[in-house]
């Protein structure tokens, strides 16, 4: 029977995580110890490890979706194996993300540009929430990293016209 991999709790304070990037694609072989996804929390970006051998049968969450801890993110099993019952109805985070279609579409273009910047996951999230173009900011954190204060300062400043 296929195994469901859930959003892990990566810190004591974590309640949700953002699936930043899939490291494996649907249909790819995975084995115990493989890293299958990269997850951003409010404090760090970490990778999710697979504890089963098989094929990545189904991903329930799209890149950029916010997922509560314990919610299914994917299923791993053998080729042609049926998904566990209830797994198809499980991706509530994806359904919630698609309801406000206009804001979700507006955020999509900004995502690829800020993935290569040196910015904390929290700073990226706040920038998305406040509509700040993070690529225009200069970081004041360690090594020029963009931090929360940089985004909040930019959000408070009047927009140039």
Quick check: average pLDDT?
79
Question: Percentage of helical residues?
Answer: 10-25%
Tell me the radius of gyration: 17 Å
The level-1 CATH class of the largest domain: Mainly Beta
- Output the strand order for the largest sheet: 1-8-6-3
Which superfamily, in CATH terms, is the homologous superfamily of the largest domain?
RNA polymerase II/Efflux pump adaptor protein, barrel-sandwich hybrid domain
Question: What structural class should be given to the helix and strand makeup?
Answer: alpha+beta
- The N- to C-terminal Cα distance equals 58 Å
Low-confidence stretches: 89-115
Largest sheet: 4 strands, antiparallel
Strand-residue proportion: 15-25%
Q: What is the helix/strand order?
A: EEEEEEEEHHHHH
Structurally, the number of domains stands at 2
The CATH architecture name of the largest domain reads Beta Barrel
What name does CATH use for the topology of the largest domain? OB fold (Dihydrolipoamide Acetyltransferase, E2P)
Shape: elongated
What's the β-strand tally? 8
Count the DSSP helices.
5
